């Protein structure tokens, strides 16, 4: 018999549960129509509507639900295999998400600081302005269009201070020379910001590099900039930021970062470019 359209579109774990239920229905029709799969008082309650959604693949069951269903269907030995298939499907769906956070709110700054704090490595490129991690309070306030005493500015400064003192985390940061030639605010504000960058160039565990304007690259960076925190990519948008963890996307941005990092200069050469 050819497979129905539902059988083709239903996930493998859902098809396995559906097959077990059909087996009970064929061999024990009275039990299939009357019995509640959850016979033990310790089992969490579940409605017939939930069971139907699970068997259609529209709802991810947790391990307890799979165990109870397999026991009720007379196949407890299959629970572990089905549970593993459900977990894999759930992780695969989670791996392909894109999360957008609007604005430069304190909540957003705290979120990025938490992501940085949990990461083993931080790789970043910025082409339009100074990286947020490297901004002075005055520059950050103007960049975020808030007062300098705003909590979001203070939280961004905490990220900068943590970077200077945390020798257990790898930082590789790339600024394009062009991004440093955009004068944001007064000449005094920019002088203070550039001086801060020169200071970072002398921090041993921070690899700050500058991409010279005359240095050719093979691919353009059209979005302005991005950060890579281990296996999470954060993109800077005009009025928001977005993070993604799809493996293919992360690999793409890793390759792009390596290209820009290798084309950039560090150390004394970077300091000279900052000071020009």
The residue ranges in which pLDDT falls below 50 over 5 or more consecutive positions are 1-8, 37-41
Secondary structure tally, helices: 13
CATH homology superfamily name of the largest domain: Endonuclease Chain A
| Strand proportion | 5-15%
Shape: elongated
> CATH top level of the largest domain?
Alpha Beta
Instruction: Tell me the strand order in the biggest sheet.
Output: 1-7-6-5-2-3-4
What about the largest sheet? 7 strands, mixed
- And the CATH topology of the largest domain? Endonuclease, Chain A
What percentage of residues falls in helices of 4 or more residues?
40-55%
- Give the count of structural domains: 2
CATH architectural arrangement of the largest domain: 2-Layer Sandwich
Write down the Rg: 27 Å
Number of strands: 7
Order of secondary-structure elements: HHHHHHEHEHHEHHEEEEHH
Please report the distance between the alpha carbons of the first and last residues: 76 Å
Oligomeric composition of the shown chains: single chain
Mean pLDDT: 80
Sheet/helix structural class: alpha/beta
Textual characterization of the structure:
The protein folds into two domains: 5-94; 98-275, Endonuclease, Chain A (2-Layer Sandwich), CATH 3.30.870.10. The protein has helices at residues 5-9, 12-27, 29-34, 48-56, 63-72, 79-94, 106-118, 137-144, 151-165, 177-181, 187-200, 247-263, 267-275, and strands at residues 98-102, 121-126, 170-176, 206-211, 225-229, 232-236, 240-244. The protein has 276 residues and is α/β, with parallel strands linked by helices. The N and C termini lie far apart (76 Å). The protein has a seven-stranded mixed sheet, with helices on both faces. Helix content is 52%, strand content 14%. Helix 2 (12-27) packs antiparallel against helix 6 (79-94) and helix 8 crosses helix 9 (151-165). It is elongated, with a radius of gyration of 27 Å. It has 13 helices and seven strands.
